[in-house]
Every structure is written in structure tokens, then in C-alpha cells.
Amino acid sequence: MTLTAHDAYRRYRQERPRIEEAVELTAAFIRRRAARRHLSCQVTCRAKEVSSFIKKAYRKTEYTDPWKQITDKAGIRLVVPYSSLLDEALDLVTGDGLTCIRIEDDREKPGFEDRLEYPRLHVQIRAHGEWLDPDGAPYECEVQIRTEASDVWARMSHSLMYKPEATTDIPSDVRRSLYRLIALVELYDSEVERGVTALAEHPDFSRSNRLLAEAERIYQTFSQHPYDRTLSEDVVDVLVDTIGDEPGYADQLVEFAEQNRGRIERAYEQFGPTSEQFLEHGRYLLVSQPESLIIFERLANALHDLQETWEGNLESRLLTDLARIWGVRW
């Protein structure tokens, strides 16, 4: 059934809560998959605002069926640190567990280098889970895959250029400035990749850095709350000694988090930074930190080593608080 712009608006206003839940579940699934693959990325999501939907429905006069043709009702943005991770991110959202409907990839599109745009990489997927619309069709999500640099460019160019494709309307000096900015974005992207690769191969790049990066990836599947990076570094420098050269610990930590997901979620909900316990007593500081995942795993599997290593290096109350949460008798 074809809907007018007004009918599509009324339907979207009614269905938006279900669409919002569907996109949040899909984003959470993508975060968990990224953690299992050890892929560093930021995943955010949103259901289109009702006001934005109706404006788009009326503005796009070429739409004959706005409900079906507005495909970004649910949107997910997946941002990776640099460009060589784009293909891995693409594989992530088109692999097992998600159904890909179509891919729009402008990276190899002829003549794209002459346009004042960054190459688009969008994937239309079915929302994860069992959510269906009133017609019995699964909801869809538009996934935008970007590097950190191209994400900055996209947000900047959106505010500067109402219609980026109409480059002939932009004064020549401004066009030159924008082309230089695109070049800088590409240069920044390549230098970030070069630096990350060099650091990873450097002998002084510590096991602590690798362990913290792993914990951060997994923590993002539980919480988007900001944390204190300096505190994390201090704690992980101690925790790494309880792990030693244990092979495959990154996979072990991912598996532990998945097997205990419900228990960890409850711990963050009851003792995290927005909980009454935290706000009233100012304790349970490490519950709002990614290294809490390593501590929970060590409490479960290496309690003696954890106690010995912690003593004399960090405040004992920080550990006893987490032990109490995890139900370990101290």
C-alpha cells in the first residue's frame, strides 16, 4: 500500500518507539560482534526524529512512497580508526547474524576524486532480532561506515554545504579550500594507520596497552559511559602481571564477558556511575571502568594471583568492592 507523506508521517510517529528499540538491539549486536573480532570501533545509533522524517518526506518531491523510500528511519554509524579497517567493518555488518539488503560503496567509483565528498560506504541491513512492522516485514537499518577522519569531514561539510553535489555554486577559492581539507583528511587517516601499525610492532608497546584496548572494546558492549583513561592505565599495569604470557587471553576475556553478560549487566546497573550505590556512597569506582571486566574475570579464575599482585600496588578497597559485587568471599 502506497502512503502519502502525511500518512507516512503518522505511521512513523506511531512506530518510532519500536524502531528505536530495534536499532538499539542491532547496534548492541554489532558491538558484541566487533569485540569478538577484536575490531576497534565506535558504534552509535538513532531512530530518526519525527520532525526530520516529515521534513524529508515533504522535501523530497521525487518520493512516490515516502514510507518505503526513506530508508534511514533507523540509522547506525560505525566509525573505525583508519581506512584499512573499512573492509573488516563491512564484513562485520554483512556477515553471519545480519541480513544485508544492499551495499552502497563509492570508494572505487570512477570520478569520485573530483567531487567535494568523501566516498560513501553505506549498508542497508535487516534489524537484528524479531521486531516486525504491522505489515509483518522486518525493520531495516542504514549503517554508515566511516573512519574517524571521514566522520569529522562529513559533519563539517554537512554544515558548510547545503547541497554538496552542487559544487559549481561554490566560489572557486572556497572549493580549493575544501579540496585541501579532503586531502588533509586522507593524509591524517593514512598517518594514523602508519602510527598505530608502527606502535603495535614496537617492542616497547606494552602488554598493558594491548590488554586495555581489548577491555575497552568489550566494555563498549555494556556501557557508553565515559571513563578515566589514566586510572585504567594504572590498574591495568597491575592486572597484566596476573595474566603473564597466557596465550589467547583476549579471546578468553571475550568469552568470559559473553558467558556472564547478564551478571555483568546487573553489576553495572546496580553499582555503576548512575546507580544509587555509587552516588550515595562514592564507592565502587572501578565499576565504571573497562578494567572492571578483567578484574571480574580474574576474581573468577585467578583469585590468588590477583590478591598477591594487587597488594601493595593499589588501594585494597577498590578490589574488595568488586569482589563483594562478584560474590567472592574475601
UniProtKB/TrEMBL annotation:
<dbReference type="Pfam" id="PF04607">
    <property type="entry name" value="RelA_SpoT"/>
</dbReference>
<dbReference type="InterPro" id="IPR007685">
    <property type="entry name" value="RelA_SpoT"/>
</dbReference>
<protein>
    <submittedName>
        <fullName>RelA/SpoT domain-containing protein</fullName>
    </submittedName>
</protein>
<feature type="domain" description="RelA/SpoT">
    <location>
        <begin position="45"/>
        <end position="168"/>
    </location>
</feature>
<dbReference type="InterPro" id="IPR043519">
    <property type="entry name" value="NT_sf"/>
</dbReference>
